[in-house]
Amino acid sequence: MDQTDVVIVGAGVVGLAVAVEMSRRYPDREILLVEKYGRFGQETSSRNSEVIHGGMYYPTGSLKAKLCVAGNRLLYQFCAAHQVPHKQLGKIIITRNSDEEAAVKKIYEQGQANGVPGLRYLDAAEVHRLEPHIEATGGLFSETTGIIDSHQLMARLEGMAEAQGVLLCYAHEVLQVKKGDQGYVVHYRNPEGEGDLETKVLFNCAGLYSDTIPEQLGIDVDAVNYRIYPCKGEYFSLAPGKARLIQHLVYPPPAQNLKGLGIHMTKSLDGMGKMGPSAEYVDSKTDYNVDPSHLEQFYQAAHSYLPFVEREDLNPDMAGIRPKTMKPGGKWTDFVITNEAKRNLPNLIDLVGIESPGLTASLAIAKYAVDQVEK
Fold it and tell me: In sequence order, what are the residues at sequence separation of 6 or more whose Cβ sits closer than 8 angstroms to the Cβ of residue 327?
């Protein structure tokens, strides 16, 4: 059986970032990045809003809060240093009535507690000056929110990992993981057949399937809240002429019962715009079709604060699936990033439920995850 030092399962943005960070800190170790698809980022990492988040929504002290704020700073620095296309557009969380003003006040206070820089209130005149075509009584401006080309980010990380000696094993699907004499035995399938690989350190960055590895190793994923509940988010594109009327990212305040941040207006680097994502728990982890019958839901959400949007301005665009650990109707859940030594699985580093703000936080997540390795 082949043996190695480190295996990272999953070449999404987090797995790639872990590969870069691990190979930087441990240049003398053999590190394999194992991915079932033929290239990186084929699921959650490439099917999202591509927003660099500020970090004002998450409970103070949570991993989502800490790693989003730290990751925001690291990501802008990385983009500047490695020529990753991005724009620090800024975001307006608008208010349309007194209830929303109270909700935005809470978001501001949460952001202050989380150490989010560049937050400021806007009155109606200031919103109108920034976005003349929006109807709002006021809002909250997030200076550090932006957009990024996630594919280029992952390409840069892939190149760095490879340059630092990481072995990229694409088209290698992990079928089973079990404990071995020296750590963990990874049973995989590739185009040549099946094989086994023993590793001392195992990073589980498997995204939508990140509950599978701990379950195979005997962890009761329901008892420890590792179970993944796939939550689909659809997007509808906005007609180019209408998208050009908006210069920033525009969000409504999230309602208490939402599974995400609500259907918002995002911009792409080429100036185009789309509305989304919605949030619907689903059974399939592979169905990325957008249901055209959901147009009315998107139109009503968009028209409530973008009065110039008409139904014919919206068209089905794309969908992504979030790896949530929050049950349908359940309570908010944080990232899981932990060494399972406490469960007699030393140097199994589980990263479970890495949904939004996972892209923003990816570089900070990698640092935190590599910190968990017991030398």
Answer: 227, 229
The pair of structure tokens assigned to 203 is 């990073």
Tokens found for residue 236? 């509808």
**358-371 and 63-82 helices, crossing angle to 10°:** 100
Tally Cβ neighbours within 10 Å of residue 289: 11
Q: What is the percent of the chain with per-residue pLDDT over 70, rounded to a whole number? A: 98
264 bridge partner residues: 276
CA distances from 143 to 72, 96, 106, 313, 335 (A): 11, 21, 18, 28, 25
Residue type at position 253: P
Residue of 341, 347, 344 whose CA lies nearest to 29: 347
Give the Cα-Cα-Cα angle 262, 267, 270 (nearest 5 degrees).
160
User: For residue 50, what are the contacts with CB-CB under 8 A and spacing of at least 6?
Assistant: 147, 148, 149, 150, 266, 268, 359
What's the alpha-carbon Rg for the chain, to the nearest Å? 21
Residue with tokens 């988010």: 233
Average pLDDT score over residue span 159-164: 98
How high is the pLDDT of residue 261?
64
Single pTM value for the model: 0.97
Local structure of 12: helix, strand or coil? coil
Which DSSP string do the residues of 112-174 spell out, in sequence order?
Answer: HHHT--SEEEEEHHHHHHH-TT---SEEEEETT-EEE-HHHHHHHHHHHHHHTT-EEETT-EE
pLDDT tens digits along 175-185: 999 999 999 99
What confidence tens digit (pLDDT) does each residue in 282-292 have? 999 999 999 99
